[in-house]
Design brief:
Blueprint lengths: L15 H5 L12 H5 L9 E12 L4 E10 L7 E14 L2 E16 L3 E14 L8 E14 L2 E8 L4 H4 L4 E11 L2 E10 L11 E11 L3 E10 L4 E11 L3 E12 L8 E12 L12
């Protein structure tokens, strides 16, 4: 489970399934991926994800992340809601530590059958290394939209941490993506993210690009692969993931590894594992790739 350019405390956390697909998923952000990457995606597939619990580790700051969420899209009107909580502890060494708490509430609404619109309100509470410049957190929000151009093609745009970063201590940016579903069990994703503020560790900002895919095998297993360029570290990375799925739940694992490292940057490894419990309802707006 693991980086939307989120609060400084959460810069290595996107979710386990996006992690395995190169950090993609904005144009098909169903379930728990919605509140984390693009809230409008929660309305794309009807289901009730009773609980997702996850653990992630990033070697960049020796950061341990715990995450829990619930997403419900069983409304007859397609209105979806989600809430989540994330905690992260960083221990890079030298007696320096950091702690971050993030809670969020997301809502998504379908419009005219082909468009969904959503927003997430987030609250951060930061301390130690994560409270850069004595900014201990605050409230910010994301706003996103997804458009189904064709039955098998959707595009999305999302603004991240749009409230003044000096109050929320969060990196601001614009994400965008496309999802192509050539087969019922295959989804191909391409995303980009442009950070509008510099990262507090590297001082860099710019545009990241990533691609990924998810293949469902027999409705019971998902295999994911992806990769991309991270503008914050200026490194290129690869990723892979796997899920075992039943009618009421799934176990997900994901790995992201820097492959080509820019001079002056660290090679980072990010791993994640999650457990999902859900009640499926087969009424999708798009043809879903099984259980992405």
């Amino acid at each position: 489970m693991l980086t939307s350019a989120r609060a400084f405390a959460m810069d290595d956390y996107w979710g386990t399934r996006p992690l395995g697909m190169g950090d993609t998923g904005r144009a098909y952000a169903i379930g728990d991926v919605g509140p984390l990457l693009n809230p409008s995606g929660m309305s794309l597939v009807k289901n009730f994800q009773v609980l997702e619990g996850a653990y992630g580790y990033s070697s960049r700051l020796k950061a341990h992340t715990l995450h829990a969420s619930m997403v419900d899209n069983t409304s007859g009107f397609g209105i979806a809601g989600g809430l989540y909580y994330t905690y992260r502890a960083t221990e890079p060494g030298g007696g320096v530590t950091g702690h971050g708490h993030e809670g969020g509430l997301a809502l998504s609404i379908p419009i005219a059958g082909r468009v969904t619109f959503g927003g997430t309100v987030k609250y951060f509470r930061l301390s130690g290394l994560d409270a850069q410049g004595d900014n201990t957190g605050g409230v910010t929000f994301d706003v996103g939209g997804t458009v189904t151009l064709l039955p098998k093609l959707s595009v999305a745009v999302v603004g991240t941490n749009l409230r003044d970063l000096h109050n929320s201590n969060a990196t601001q940016g614009i994400g965008y993506g496309a999802a192509f579903i050539p087969l019922a069990d295959l989804v191909i994703l391409a995303d980009g993210f442009t950070s509008l503020t510099s990262n507090y560790l590297t001082g860099r900002k710019g545009t990241s690009g990533m691609v990924g895919g998810d293949l469902t095998l027999g409705g019971k297993f998902d295999i994911r692969i992806g990769g991309g360029y991270d503008a914050v570290s200026a490194n290129y990375y690869g990723s892979a993931g796997f899920s075992a799925v039943s009618e009421v739940g799934a176990i997900d694992v994901g790995l992201r590894q820097d492959v080509i490292v820019n001079a002056g940057s660290r090679r980072a490894t990010i791993v994640g594992v999650s457990l999902r419990l859900f009640i499926p309802s087969q009424q999708p707006s798009l043809t879903p790739p099984g259980t992405l």
